[in-house]
């Protein structure tokens, strides 16, 4: 059964830790009107629902959910990546991935499932169990699973804390039950190293590196994350491109030599 729109607005406002007054001021409506919406005494207009979704900083998927709960059609499409209208998006992603070689890069969806990757990503998955590389391939599971990349990650405790922190914040941002289940699963994986609760830099540290053993050679990477800047489609909004760069000259030379 679908929750009423007012209940959803109140849930998201509480999750964002925004008072009714603050949201009313931000969305330029009266607190009385917002209160009536939340209690179901007033049905918001379509424009009002979209405005509330914007000022609550909701993902496009959740804005559509608000609209449906209020009795309106979704405003944002959700196209299959293989659809003809997504050809420009696919081309842009492939150009970005190919241009990043010989450094690893991957594209993931909202659930951290692998959508596409460049050929250099194979360097990081070389020793991974084939079972984990059978679709859908979840990159967090591949990274932290004991049959995945975990045995080759030299700073597993540190990298694990970094990834679980990102996923935890994503769960808080989206309230996605699939991601919440994934977080619970990953927390159950073994790790012999200390896992810091808070990422505190040591002397000279400017990022959390991924220190990885490849064929007896220690490699060090830092990563960047990119998203589409002005998405109006749910699928496009949820695509994330993660690119890895060498964190020292020795790693850069190893990658250039292939």
TrEMBL record:
<feature type="domain" description="HTH cro/C1-type">
    <location>
        <begin position="9"/>
        <end position="63"/>
    </location>
</feature>
<dbReference type="InterPro" id="IPR001387">
    <property type="entry name" value="Cro/C1-type_HTH"/>
</dbReference>
<dbReference type="Pfam" id="PF17765">
    <property type="entry name" value="MLTR_LBD"/>
</dbReference>
<dbReference type="InterPro" id="IPR010982">
    <property type="entry name" value="Lambda_DNA-bd_dom_sf"/>
</dbReference>
<dbReference type="Pfam" id="PF13560">
    <property type="entry name" value="HTH_31"/>
</dbReference>
<dbReference type="InterPro" id="IPR041413">
    <property type="entry name" value="MLTR_LBD"/>
</dbReference>
<protein>
    <submittedName>
        <fullName>Helix-turn-helix transcriptional regulator</fullName>
    </submittedName>
</protein>
